[in-house]
Design brief:
Layout (H helix, E strand, L loop, with lengths): L4 E5 L3 H13 L4 E5 L3 H10 L4 E3 L2 H5 L4 E4 L6 H8 L8 E4 L5 H10 L5 E3 L1 E4 L19 E4 L7 H13 L3 E4 L2 H24 L3 H4 L4 H7 L6 H10 L1 H24 L2 H21 L3
Parallel strand pairs: 1-2, 1-4, 2-3, 4-5, 5-6, 8-9
Antiparallel strand pairs: 7-8
Length: 284
C-alpha cells in the first residue's frame, strides 16, 4: 500500500523533487515538509512540493507513515534522535544520503522497535542545491540503491522500494559497506579530484578555461557543507581511492619520463574504450 502521509526532512533539490514527484504519482498523498529556514518552507509551499511546513522535525513527522531524511548526512544522527519519540508505530524511515554505513547503524540503534528503517540512495542529484531546482521528473529512469541489513524488516524494504519505483526509479540492493566503497570510487573520489583540479589553477589559467575544463570540474561547484560531511563519513574508502589514483598518476609519470609513446597510447586508448562503453550503457 503506498504511503498516504509523507514527511520530508530537508526540502531542497532532492526533498523538493520527492514531494513534487510523489504528489503527481501517488493519489491522495499528503506531503509534510521540515526545514530550519522559514523562507525555504515558504518557497516549497509556493512550488507545491509540500502541503504543510514545519520548522521543528518532531512536528513534521507526527502521524506520518513514511519519513525521508533529505538533509546533509552530518545531521542525520541529530534528526533521528529528535524524531524517534514522535514517530507513529509502524512508520517507515528512509533517507537519500550518499553514505550508508553510519546512518544505517545509527538508525537501527536510535529508532524504536515499532519503527522500521531502510537505507536508500537515489542517484539523481546534481551540483545544484535548493528548492528552486526541484522538479517532478528528477527520478525518472534513475537508479536508487537500497541497503538492507539482516535487521531490515522485509515488508518495510518492499514498501520503500515500491515507493521509489512509483517515482520512476530503477532499484538495486547493496550492503551498506558495498555502497560506501562503490560510491566512494564513482562519486566521492571524482568530486575530490574535481575540487583539486580547480584548486591547483591560477587566476590566469582559469581565464583560458573552456568547455572541457568546465565539464571535468562541474561537480566541484557542489555544496561544501554537504560534501564535507560525505568525505568525513566515508574517509576510509576515499583515502583508498586517492591512493589508487596516485598509483595511476605515477604510472603516467613513468610513461612520460621514459617517453614510451606506444605504452602511453595504450593507456589512453584503454581509458577511452572504458569511457565509451560506459556511455553506451548510460547514454546522456
Amino acid at each position: 500500500m503506498p504511503p498516504r502521509k509523507i514527511s520530508i526532512l530537508g526540502v531542497g533539490l532532492l526533498g523538493g523533487s520527492i514531494g513534487l514527484a510523489a504528489k503527481s504519482s501517488i493519489k491522495d498523498c499528503q506531503i509534510i515538509g521540515y526545514g530550519h529556514r522559514q523562507a525555504t518552507m515558504d518557497a516549497a509551499l509556493g512550488r507545491g512540493a509540500i502541503d504543510q511546513a514545519f520548522t521543528e522535525p518532531e512536528a513534521a513527522v507526527a502521524g506520518c507513515d513514511l519519513v525521508v531524511l533529505c538533509t546533509p548526512v552530518g545531521i542525520f544522527r541529530q534528526l533521528l534522535s529528535k524524531i524517534a519519540p514522535s514517530l507513529a508505530p509502524g512508520a517507515l524511515v528512509t533517507d537519500v544520503g550518499s553514505t550508508k554505513r553510519t546512518v544505517v547503524e545509527e538508525a537501527e540503534k536510535l529508532l524504536p522497535p515499532t519503527v522500521h528503517f531502510v537505507g536508500s540512495h537515489p542517484i539523481a542529484g546534481s551540483e545544484k542545491r535548493g528548492i528552486e531546482f526541484a522538479r517532478p521528473d528528477l527520478f525518472q529512469n534513475a537508479l536508487c540503491l537500497t541497503t538492507p541489513t539482516p535487521q531490515t524488516n522485509p515488508a518495510a524494504l518492499e514498501t520503500v522500494e515500491a515507493f521509489w519505483k512509483s517515482l520512476g526509479m530503477r532499484l538495486r540492493r547493496l550492503t551498506p559497506a558495498e555502497h560506501d566503497k562503490f560510491l566512494s570510487d564513482i562519486s566521492h573520489l571524482p568530486h575530490a579530484l574535481a575540487a583539486a583540479l580547480v584548486s591547483m589553477q591560477t587566476d590566469k589559467s582559469l581565464e583560458l578555461a573552456g568547455k572541457g575544463f568546465s565539464d571535468t570540474t562541474r561537480i566541484a561547484a557542489g555544496d561544501a557543507e554537504l560534501w564535507r560531511d560525505i568525505f568525513l563519513d566515508n574517509r576510509d574508502n576515499l583515502r583508498d581511492g586517492i591512493h589508487a589514483v596516485r598509483s595511476e598518476l605515477d604510472r603516467l609519470l613513468k610513461l612520460l619520463d621514459t617517453q614510451d609513446a606506444a605504452a602511453l597510447k595504450d593507456w589512453l586508448s584503454t581509458a577511452a574504450a572504458r569511457r565509451t562503453a560506459l556511455e553506451k550503457r548510460h547514454p546522456s
